[in-house]
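Technical annex, item 7. During the second reporting period the consortium partners agreed on a shared format for inverse folding records so that results from different sites could be compared directly. Each record opens with the tokenized structure and is followed by the designed sequence. A conforming record, contributed by the partner at site C, is shown below for reference.
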């Protein structure tokens, strides 16, 4: 099998040196070239085009986002953004995804060399995943790419669009979600869910919930409408995002590298809900280990959504909700037994 040929574009000599050395040791990966800025990179690419680009954002002569857009227009190529500016939920991260990046690795501002060595597996994993991506030229009149979530102008159609509830959970979440969904009436807002679960498990999980709940529960498919009384669960092994067409919400299901070590990632879903639904949404972060979803919930709150976290006493693992509370992402913490009632109460509200 041919190796994945990678070009590193970064103005930091340390990044180029350490990352090139690390990738050179990875089986199946070859460093095709390095460049200190996009213009040097383009000269080299025109002679020998790489399979994957690892691209910084802050660089001389041309920033990485502008270069990304240029490359995607010229010859769509898998790009992994590696930058200090692309923390989860930031405008730069979202702009990079919208422009066609298939992966994001966030660099710290300090301790760069050690970070690259410590995070070698994550970077290599992102490159391998990017190499498998089928990248297309950003469409003009066609439908947007799955990760290119359209912006919602402040105040646009806020009174006419339907409400959306987004739930995220991990360890202990299967039982917690069942408790919440079984307590919901058939008439409730459309719900989108990310539960950390391996591939092929989510379909059976959704089927079982569908058999015991008044609401319709199903594993999400590309383009599924988010409708009142319907619960869409992200497929194991794939990211799910909310998108909007006029006053209608739907979901996109896509491959891509793990985010916060998870695919599906709660953060990926909640960030898309923040951008597409804004104040028309309710976000709830439930029991789980780690911090996936905390920054996405913060993005939802900053967009005007109602945000809640499951309280410590009712969590199997008080990890994800705790991180959300620490960030100020959750307006309130509530027990598991109260979440369904909050969803029903939210459904009856006339506005944020």
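Designed sequence (site C submission):
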């Amino acid at each position: 099998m041919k190796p994945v040929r990678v070009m590193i574009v970064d103005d930091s000599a340390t990044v180029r040196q350490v990352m090139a050395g690390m990738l050179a040791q990875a089986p199946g990966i070859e460093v095709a070239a390095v460049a200190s800025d996009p213009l040097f990179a383009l000269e080299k690419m025109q002679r020998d085009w790489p399979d994957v680009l690892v691209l910084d954002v802050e660089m001389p002569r041309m920033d990485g986002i502008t270069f990304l857009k240029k490359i995607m227009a010229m010859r769509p190529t898998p790009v992994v953004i590696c930058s200090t500016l692309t923390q989860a939920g930031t405008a730069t991260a979202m702009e990079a995804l919208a422009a066609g990046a298939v992966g994001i690795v966030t660099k710290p501002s300090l301790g760069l060399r050690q970070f690259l060595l410590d995070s070698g597996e994550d970077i290599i994993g992102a490159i391998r995943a990017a190499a498998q991506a089928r990248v297309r030229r950003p469409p003009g009149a066609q439908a947007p790419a799955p990760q290119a979530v359209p912006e919602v102008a402040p105040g646009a159609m806020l009174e006419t669009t339907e409400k959306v509830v987004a739930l995220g959970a991990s360890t202990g979440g299967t039982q917690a979600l069942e408790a919440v969904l079984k307590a919901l009436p058939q008439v409730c807002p459309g719900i989108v869910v990310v539960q950390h679960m391996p591939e092929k498990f989510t379909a059976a999980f959704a089927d079982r919930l569908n058999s015991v709940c008044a609401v319709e529960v199903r594993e999400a498919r590309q383009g599924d409408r988010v409708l009142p009384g319907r619960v869409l669960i992200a497929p194991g092994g794939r990211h799910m995002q909310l998108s909007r067409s006029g006053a209608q919400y739907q979901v996109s299901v896509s491959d891509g590298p793990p985010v916060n070590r998870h695919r599906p990632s709660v953060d990926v879903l909640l960030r898309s809900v923040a951008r597409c639904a804004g104040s028309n949404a309710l976000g709830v972060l439930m029991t789980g280990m780690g911090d996936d979803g905390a920054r996405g919930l913060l993005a939802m709150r900053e967009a005007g959504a109602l945000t809640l976290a499951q309280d410590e006493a009712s969590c199997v693992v008080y990890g994800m909700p705790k991180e959300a509370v620490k960030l100020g992402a959750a307006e309130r913490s509530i027990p598991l037994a109260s979440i369904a009632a909050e969803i029903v109460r939210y459904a009856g509200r006339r506005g944020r």
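The chain is about 35% helix and 20% strand. Residues 120-132 form the longest helix (13 residues). All partners now use this format for quarterly exchanges.
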